[in-house]
């Protein structure tokens, strides 16, 4: 009667980590993953700067803090075990203005509360680490690293032993008393005992297909990147001091496993859930965002911040000015356009940006409703948590 025990929707790193965790925790469990794209990691997972985050920024005790710290160590170990490209580089968080110094000090305290060793540096020490970077003070975080999350996701898929179906967009979900039935756009019907929703940019839509009101909407924010034409100017990873009012880390400099240096991202509203440029507009996605009261409340509350991000999106000179705060030698000619990403940010009705990972349970279903950065770093612990919830439903039939 059943095609599988657990059906996972979404072939990004969280979905594949869940499949991997399921088959590790309960050998013999039949797991199928449905991914609408022709391959894994085509959206958030494969369109980021590849940073293995240490957990510095996140509220002590939160899932983000606990899973990032744990996940960073596990990600390095996973990459080493399977021979995937990675490096523990460390990073600098640099204050370029005196007004940022109290926030930098608070970050140091938060890092230590999360069990992360950091060193506080002055200008001469900043210069020793990054000769072309300028700042008044910095934190050195030694546990930060880099990897290729697309390669990690592909390895998780292979190692999981799950059946992976690509090009399988979910069109309908039914939850009769005996289990879950999912119909794809191609007309295929799969029956499972338990459903796991890891659909990322579309997770709230999938929740509603299943008959569950998630209480949040995904509001897509595009992050635009450039590549540094002179990568020799940056040795490792260099970040500004973030604004604590937002879940975005600001324009930073990231040397990747390929030796290139990415610059970005900013954070601007996307006009589609997969809106990787201003020309990509999907009226249905846009109408859904505009119909959600939380989107308007964000705009009213943070319009000044948003105006600055829009300016950097529309003006390469303005983007360069943001880079020059950290890297004074950078010029517009040094910035080459690179592929953008879109962050799936869950927003409450009152306009609150959901700050932590959000996992909710429903009959025979587990929904992952907010898993932006550092979800890639934390994907192995997240996958285990989701797998435990799914297996509990598999056992008791709830």
Shape: globular
Can you identify the CATH superfamily of the domain at 1-52 and 64-83 and 146-215 and 356-398? FAD/NAD(P)-binding domain
What is the number of beta strands? Answer: 20
Derived structural class: alpha+beta
Written overview of the protein:
This protein has a domain at 1-52 and 64-83 and 146-215 and 356-398: FAD/NAD(P)-binding domain (3-Layer(bba) Sandwich), CATH 3.50.50.60. The chain contains 11 helices and 20 strands. It has helices spanning 13-25, 63-82, 101-113, 123-129, 149-160, 203-209, 283-291, 293-301, 303-314, 316-324, 379-396; strands at residues 4-9, 31-35, 51-52, 86-88, 91-95, 118-121, 137-141, 145-147, 163-166, 170-174, 180-184, 189-197, 216-228, 237-240, 252-255, 261-264, 268-269, 335-348, 358-362, 365-370. A hairpin with a 4-residue loop joins strand 11 (180-184) and strand 12. Helix 2 (63-82) packs across helix 11 (379-396). The radius of gyration is 21 Å and the shape is globular. The chain starts with a strand and ends with a helix. The model has no long low-confidence stretch (mean pLDDT 96).
Structural topology:
Layout: E1 4-9, H1 13-25, E2 31-35, E3 51-52, H2 63-82, E4 86-88, E5 91-95, H3 101-113, E6 118-121, H4 123-129, E7 137-141, E8 145-147, H5 149-160, E9 163-166, E10 170-174, E11 180-184, E12 189-197, H6 203-209, E13 216-228, E14 237-240, E15 252-255, E16 261-264, E17 268-269, H7 283-291, H8 293-301, H9 303-314, H10 316-324, E18 335-348, E19 358-362, E20 365-370, H11 379-396
Parallel strand pairs: 1-2, 1-12, 2-9, 5-14, 12-20
Antiparallel strand pairs: 3-8, 4-8, 5-7, 6-7, 10-11, 11-12, 13-16, 13-17, 13-18, 14-15, 15-16, 19-20
């Amino acid at each position: 009667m059943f095609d599988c025990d657990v059906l996972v929707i979404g072939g990004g790193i969280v979905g594949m980590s869940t499949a991997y965790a399921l088959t590790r925790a309960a050998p013999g469990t039949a797991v199928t993953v449905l991914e609408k794209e022709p391959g894994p990691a085509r959206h958030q997972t494969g369109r980021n700067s590849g940073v293995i985050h240490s957990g510095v920024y996140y509220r002590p005790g939160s899932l983000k803090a606990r899973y990032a710290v744990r996940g960073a160590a596990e990600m390095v170990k996973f990459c080493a075990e399977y021979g995937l490209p990675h490096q523990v580089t460390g990073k600098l968080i640099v204050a370029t203005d005196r007004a940022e110094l109290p926030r930098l000090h608070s970050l140091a305290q938060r890092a230590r509360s999360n069990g992360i060793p950091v060193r506080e540096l002055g200008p001469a020490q900043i210069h020793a680490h990054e000769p072309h970077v300028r700042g008044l003070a910095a934190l050195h975080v030694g546990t930060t690293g880099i990897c290729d999350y697309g390669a990690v996701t592909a390895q998780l898929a292979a190692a999981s032993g799950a059946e992976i179906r690509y090009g399988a967009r979910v069109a309908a979900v039914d939850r009769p008393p005996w289990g879950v039935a999912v119909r794809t756009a191609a007309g295929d019907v799969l029956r499972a005992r338990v459903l796991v929703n890891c659909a990322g940019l579309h997770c709230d839509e999938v929740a509603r297909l299943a008959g569950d009101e998630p209480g949040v909407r995904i509001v897509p924010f595009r992050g635009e990147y450039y590549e540094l034409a002179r990568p020799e100017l940056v040795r490792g990873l260099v970040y500004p001091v973030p604004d604590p009012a937002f879940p975005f880390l600001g324009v930073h400099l990231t040397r990747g496993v390929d030796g290139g240096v990415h610059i970005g991202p900013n954070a601007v509203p996307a006009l589609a859930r997969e809106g990787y440029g201003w020309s990509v507009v999907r009226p249905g996605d846009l109408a859904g965002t505009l119909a959600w009261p939380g989107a308007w409340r964000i705009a009213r509350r943070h319009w000044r911040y948003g105006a600055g991000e829009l300016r950097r999106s529309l003006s390469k000179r303005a983007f360069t000015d943001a880079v020059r705060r950290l890297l004074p030698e950078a010029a517009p000619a040094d910035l080459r356009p690179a592929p953008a990403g879109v962050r799936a940010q869950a927003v409450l009705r009152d306009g609150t940006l959901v700050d932590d990972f959000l996992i909710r349970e429903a009959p025979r279903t587990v929904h992952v409703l907010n898993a932006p950065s550092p979800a890639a770093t934390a994907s192995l612990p997240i996958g285990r948590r989701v797998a435990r919830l799914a297996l509990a439903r598999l056992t008791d039939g709830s």
